[in-house]
Write a structure and sequence with these properties.
3 domains; two-stranded antiparallel ribbon; five-stranded parallel beta sheet; 7 strands; alpha/beta; Rossmann fold; single chain
């Protein structure tokens, strides 16, 4: 499991499931983006079926991507984005038909469903019917960011493996072992927000650190500045597109900090010059709500960036 960092207790649980003489008919592997859900699912399949069978006895489902052109945040020109379609009942039925064929290489047939929460209600009901009438050796692996969007009856018939964020120090050590320079590894571990895959991508593109660091430092400066200085700082923010981008990053900073506060490891907020937390738990939630409201105003109500920011900070 070289690609997954942290979550060792959950990985051992997967290994235990794979070694069972009678595995469950369905497993849900859930967690935030970038924590290694797909890698964990592939590892489970290799343990269960062996390297050869994992290439022939596995049916893979993922949301189809469709191109979509949108206006740039600056309002000038268009950019191509990709939207994920829902997983249809036809895709699930195709998997069920495939799994009715037995493989010569393994006694198991596996269907892995990425972004399982994207299944339509009809698709979920078709899957549920298969789980209610299980066939020996057929296993469904549901990879999801939000398992609560799955039918309660699917969840009750599945074993849940919930992956979480990793300690930045663990990610830092892993990046250094993978050959990254310490300075790059430190920044990538910090801005990966506890997600190994995000940190790896940042380590490959260190130029992104400058924007992230500048945005974070501006935010922290705003938090500590006296009122008159806050006004002066906010007057420099006049471009609506850039402000939306900054607010998105600030929202990310606070969301991750909130997650860390819950488990007692404040990551983004850090401490002020007196060694005290810059934001309490309640203040973090309040400011996060302000930013979510601010983003809507900037994106949909054509509000003045400076006035909207002043309303949030002053």
């Amino acid at each position: 499991m070289k690609r997954i960092v942290g979550n060792q207790t959950k990985i051992k649980l997967l290994e235990k499931f794979a070694a069972s003489p009678k595995p469950d008919g369905a497993y849900i592997i859930s967690g935030p983006v970038g924590v290694g859900k797909k890698e964990a699912a592939e590892y489970f399949i290799r343990l269960l079926m062996g390297q050869k069978a994992s290439k022939t006895g596995v049916y893979r489902i993922a949301p189809e991507l469709v191109k979509k052109k949108e206006k740039n945040k600056s309002g000038q020109g268009k950019q191509t984005k990709f939207r994920e379609k829902e997983i249809t009942v036809g895709q699930i039925r195709g998997a069920i038909n495939f799994m009715n064929l037995k493989s010569a290489a393994s006694s198991f047939m596996v269907c892995i469903i990425e972004k399982a929460e994207k299944m339509t209600p009809e698709a979920q009901n078709a899957l549920l019917k298969s789980l209610e009438e299980p066939k020996g050796g057929n296993i469904f692996l549901l990879v999801a960011e939000a398992e609560e969007k799955l039918l309660p009856t699917i969840r009750s018939r599945s074993a849940l493996i919930k992956l979480g964020l990793s300690n930045p120090q663990t990610i830092l050590k892993k990046l250094i072992r993978e050959g990254k320079k310490e300075t790059v590894a430190k920044a990538a571990a910090y801005y990966g927000w506890g997600k190994m895959e995000s940190s790896r991508r940042l380590a490959e593109n260190p130029e992104h650190f400058k924007l992230l660091e500048e945005t974070r430092m501006f935010f922290l400066k705003l938090m500590e500045a006296p009122l008159f200085e806050k006004i002066n700082l906010l007057e420099t923010r006049g471009d609506s597109g850039k402000v939306v981008q900054e607010v998105d990053l600030w929202t990310t900073f606070l969301t991750v900090d909130l997650e860390r506060k819950i488990i007692g490891e404040s990551l983004v907020g850090e401490n002020d010059k007196n060694g005290k937390p810059r934001l309490s738990f309640e203040e973090t939630i309040a400011l996060l709500n302000e930013f979510l409201s601010l983003r809507k105003k900037l994106k949909y109500a054509n509000a003045s960036p400076r006035l909207a920011l002043e309303a949030a900070f002053l």
